[in-house]
Write the structure tokens for this entry.
Amino acid sequence: MREMPLVSVVTPVYNGEQYLAECIESVLSQTYSNWDYVIVNNCSTDKTLEIAESYAAKDPRIRVHTNSRFAPIIENHNLALRQISPESKYCKVVFADDWLFPACISEMVKVAASNASVGLVGAYGLDGTQVLWTGLPYPGTFVEGREVCRRSLSGGPYTFGTPTSLLMRSDLVRSRGALYEETNLHADHAACYDLLQESHFGFVHQVLTFSRARHESNHAFARNMDSIILGDFSVLIKYGAVYLTAEERRARLDCLFDLYYRRLAQSVVRLRGKEYWNYHRDRMNAIGLRINRLRLAGAVVRKVIISLFQPQNSIRQAAEYWPARFKKNSKRETQSANPAAHRPASGGQTRSVAP
């Protein structure tokens, strides 16, 4: 590569002593050499700060920033991105329990630099033993931002991955006061649609990042609280008019409604607690929607009838659900897997989700 633009790497971390050294070593092992690295310590109480400072003492490209106060997860991600170098051309998040394959930054920069309109670059990721995400049709490495967002919003394959698997153009990140919406647990997903309003998407057809299978903390919270579909609603409400026609938006909204009420009906049958229902009420209120109780009642009746006539399905679903239901949650970087850390104040205008 003739030119090597500066890449700022950031790791937001809270109590990450178990895997942080491996994460840092993966950055040090990059074949691409023109990078700086900021580790943002969110008031950790374990040996996170000690580990980070030991590496910073040995390599001048590494800097440690400790927050003055403990910040909720999404806010901390925004704080981390504000630490990127003003001279950087690109920036890259790598979570403390993830790591990068040696060619990660080099291959991503190669795609980004091949087209000045590219603002976001993705790649395949390895999650435990499973390769994740759908890439662009091979051998294509570039697609217009509007087109990839339209496909995804219409219910197409998920291409973007996670912050660890993405490279972003720094000027786009710096132009936003906060890249991630701090009341949205799935703000990293929404941020892709935001960036691609004014840029295009690049993709590397290689596995470039590793994420551990997460049965804890934020990922467990997302599964247990069925929050992913709430994130889908939020993105569709906010960006649907940007990328879809009115007819396409309505069709997708109808599809999400149908799925959502089936999920809620399962939660009624499973006797989910007050925390679950409060979380859904508040998140729906925050995006201008509300749960329609009449439609929910209808979905519950259908669920009960199906269970009576197809008991084998109910037994199978219960067997899958209950073991996971009682898995012990522990802390990851997410410092706060409880819904209060992500729950917006309720109130404001709402509309029924019944079509």
User: Anything to note?
Assistant: The radius of gyration is 21 Å.
